[in-house]
Write a structure and sequence with these properties.
The structure is a homotetramer. By secondary structure, chain A is an all-alpha fold. Chain A folds into 2 domains: 57 residues, Arc Repressor Mutant, subunit A (Orthogonal Bundle); 144 residues, Orthogonal Bundle (Tetracycline Repressor, domain 2). Helix content of chain A is 71%, strand content 0%. Chain A is built from 9 helices and no strands. In chain A, α4 packs across α6. The longest helix of chain A is centred in the middle third of the chain and has 25 residues. At the C-D interface, α1, α6, α8 and α9 of C face α1, α6, α8 and α9 of D. The first copy, chain A, binds a DNA duplex through α2 and α3.
Chain lengths: 208, 208, 208, 208
Amino acid sequence: MMQEEELPRREREKLRQRREMFDAALKLFSEKGFHNVSMHEIAKNAEFAIGTLYKFFKNKEELYKALVIENSDRFHQALTKAVEETDDEIEKLRNYVRTKSAVFMDNISVIRLYFAETRGASFNIKAGLDNEIRERYEKFIYTLASIFESGIEKKLFQNIAAPYHLAVALDGLCNAFLALWLESPEKHPYPADPDVILNILFKGLIAL
Amino acid sequence: MMQEEELPRREREKLRQRREMFDAALKLFSEKGFHNVSMHEIAKNAEFAIGTLYKFFKNKEELYKALVIENSDRFHQALTKAVEETDDEIEKLRNYVRTKSAVFMDNISVIRLYFAETRGASFNIKAGLDNEIRERYEKFIYTLASIFESGIEKKLFQNIAAPYHLAVALDGLCNAFLALWLESPEKHPYPADPDVILNILFKGLIAL
Amino acid sequence: MMQEEELPRREREKLRQRREMFDAALKLFSEKGFHNVSMHEIAKNAEFAIGTLYKFFKNKEELYKALVIENSDRFHQALTKAVEETDDEIEKLRNYVRTKSAVFMDNISVIRLYFAETRGASFNIKAGLDNEIRERYEKFIYTLASIFESGIEKKLFQNIAAPYHLAVALDGLCNAFLALWLESPEKHPYPADPDVILNILFKGLIAL
Amino acid sequence: MMQEEELPRREREKLRQRREMFDAALKLFSEKGFHNVSMHEIAKNAEFAIGTLYKFFKNKEELYKALVIENSDRFHQALTKAVEETDDEIEKLRNYVRTKSAVFMDNISVIRLYFAETRGASFNIKAGLDNEIRERYEKFIYTLASIFESGIEKKLFQNIAAPYHLAVALDGLCNAFLALWLESPEKHPYPADPDVILNILFKGLIAL
DNA sequence: GATGAATGAGTTTTCATTCAT
DNA sequence: GATGAATGAAAACTCATTCAT
């Protein structure tokens, strides 16, 4: 992709405006939910006229979709990059947990939206979003699964469950702990150490 | 509490009507979300006049809250009963997973709502609901935690993590697998065997 | 008219119920205005079922009309009786002012309604009411006028204006002072002495 | 204050629209009363969309209040100006009666509303209005009272009653005669000559 | 190209009135 | 004859979207 800095001034300006609209929309949507934010409110917060907002996004739905999808892409790219940084499967998982946590911390607003979308709250209203998000999610779960698969092949991991199930499990564990933190950061400070989560997967609860 | 069958006819009739309104509301809310369902729509689906709906529920919010809370109570009662049916900690966990699955299967619609509420999608709009739900959830997590605690004391379980964390982990695992099934039942048929989930917790991924 | 006590029990009972409905309605209407009182509210306050209320009054409008008209009749009867008690014109006027004041004090609630109707606030909504009230008012003004007329004939009064105008003037003076008291009884205590009002009419502001 | 004609076109346009809304609202309110006029009706009559009406007035209450208060101000300004035009107390009173009559003739619609508000028909519903109107009324009564006071001091007027009472009396007289005309202009043509009213006050009914 | 005034469909809610029990 | 549950028309108000300037 062309670097932003290399774009003609006009285009750069456009992108900046789009980002400002995104920022305002994200803040409001994550605080109040899709239906409790009006386009006027977004326009006002972004300091644009309502008409300008509509120049950039066909309608409220499109704005919301773009917001969720672009952020979701950003997250998955970060996660994919994280697991690709090393060849060691255990280290990959550790990087995954660490990066997912970091992304959470830095993007609480968008995470709220993302959860809303991935956790059934969207009710398929914003038609199409569901599928696009699900697809990305699914793809990443396969990436995780293949890590488990190769770990099992290398006898690094015991074959306690299908690699796909292990991937789902790890993702579920992460979400559970991150949700804990999301809801009351002061009560459940997020464990800096990713091994708290990984240990549960790695060590058996029951001695053999 | 008096059995429903023993109630005077008038009361029974009232309850039946209330249930019909609940059913219609649940169906619509779970399909389209709180803001995409109008009270007229609910009344029409329930085959009552709009005024009658308002005789039963002060306003849309109340209806929604009652719907979520009453179902949430039903779930937690079922889960609590399940873990109390046996004294064996492992069996308790097995009952928990089995019951949670069963409840899921039988109440997909309301589960969607419940997820929406427990997973942050409600955006605190429906003030108070959040807290009431969260409280019930928290309480049950503690119930789970105490099972792990006593299991660890009895040396049934290895001490691989704090009991509270183990509870969060198990719940997260269940949710992850159930969400899988919720989204595409045909592709990921829910494992009839609760041990698929429990194994991941019980067996260590890494051999000692 | 047949005396109430001589009526058959059934009829007496009916009248009692009607009075109870009237009392509740009057209290509510005078406190909150026609449109801010619901038939349910009236029924509840009168301790009757809504259906029973409708057995007595065809609809809300009828109830309101009956309320205003019957009370208005009561007032005009009292006023007519007052001016008929003596043959002296000055005493007649004094009795009028005195009685009007007394009626005011004792019927503040209904006075509020009456003012609303006679002072244009009803906006002809309650079609027909206007005219019926106006007619009674008009009739009484003529009664007053005839007092002035005969007073002028007897040379008791100076011929400073048409008798009809004098009647309107006296009524207006009374209303103005009574309104003063109606609005803030503590600030403008109603003059026990009717001569405060009559003096203004009797004595000339400008010396001849 | 800047003259309306000098305002930028946009502002002038705004004012014109507001006036059109006011006109439609005034007409309807005065014909049918606050509760019998819907915002849709007003919008339709003013030939604006309902949303536009709400852009100008936060809600129905605000529209009504603005209508009553702005007109009430206009009236009191006219009356105040009228009594300030001359130094002679008698002439002041004559100007007052004349102006009040003229205002009546020209603003029958708004007078209906004004009467409704000043004569207790508003039932304190439109909270705050009562007081704001009453305050203006009270203030003007004091203005009148001070005219009587200085007239009495100058021995122009006999000291037949307290100045405040004389003010109330004159206002009451005017209202009574104007109400007469308001109700049936054809039957009781308003006396062009303000002295018909003033005479009643000026001349004594009873010879000394 | 940006603006924001204007639009009106759609939503929640109330309440007068009816009528089966 | 009394009751009050059920009805649904109608009201206030919001907000996504358009389009003339």
